[in-house]
Each structure stands twice: as C-alpha cells, then as structure tokens.
Specification:
There is one protein chain. The chain is mainly alpha-helical and 84 residues long. It has one domain. 61% of the residues lie in helices and 7% in strands. It has two helices and two strands; from the N terminus they run E-E-H-H. It has a two-stranded antiparallel ribbon. Helix 1 runs antiparallel to helix 2. The radius of gyration is 15 Å and the shape is elongated.
Amino acid sequence: MKEPRYVSLNLDSSSPAILHIDAEASLPDMLDFADHRFRMARQLLASLEGADDCDLRQVSNAARVLLEDGCGVMGLIEERLATG
C-alpha cells in the first residue's frame, strides 16, 4: 500500500490536522524547510535574555512549534532515505 503524499505535521492529536507536508517534495526543499524552522527557533531562544516570565512562556511555545515542524520533516526525510 502506497503511503499518502501529504502527511500531517500535527503532533497534537487533540486538534484537527491542517498542516501537511508533501512527502514527495524534493529532499533539498524538505531540508530547507526544516533548516529554516530550526534557525528561527534558535533565534527566538537566543532573544530570551532579560525576558520576563510571560515572554519566556510565549517564546518557548513558539520555539517548540518550530522545532516540532522541523523534526517532523526530518522524520520524513529519514523515512525516504531509509527506503531509497
């Protein structure tokens, strides 16, 4: 059975999946997507110096979402490379 072309990046099963990634996208495009999210998360986390508790919660939540997206795409890349 063929895997679906569009795979949900929704890691929170309590809400409906609306963000999907094209599992057949080129590997360079997928790597670029993941890299961009990792870099944005790193920049957000680097900006936390001097932040108050509310800022910390908001920025850490945004970084978590970016990291989840990047890790989800990296998982798809790993699957593609493993299956050749």
